[in-house]
Amino acid sequence: MNILFVVSNLSYPPAEGAHDQTLNLIINLIKNGYIVKLQGFIKSDSSFDLDRLKTDIPELKLGKFENYSTNYIFLAIKNIFCRRKISHELFDIIHFEGFGVLTSVTNYRNSHSKLLMSLIDPWARRQKRRMLASKSTIHKLVFLFLGKLLIG
Prior knowledge:
five-stranded parallel sheet; Glycosyltransferase subfamily 4-like N-terminal domain-containing protein; globular; 5 strands; alpha/beta; Rossmann fold
């Protein structure tokens, strides 16, 4: 089985519990014979040691990683308009982490790939609470619009 992990923010070595959980899941999938490719976004090169990741998990296929310095919401909006291709390969499962990369995977909706959103996304839960509690109609509309992209 071919699995693509698309991450919205990753550090290596892991700096946060969610990053550690993601990498442990990937390591266990590889140990059980799955082919795993990882790509996505990082906040800074200083928090992501690509060479060490290649050394520590040599079986992991690596795709493109892009830096972003903007807000997480702006990453999602930017991905709507840029419509970057995630990969040209076919995957059985595309596992995406977080609200920020949601719009990057919507072009796979009509493919044979199954989309799986990570349960490890505390940021999205916090952001949803903030947005829905906000008095700003614009904040609410942005969140609801991006949420609609997920469910169609």
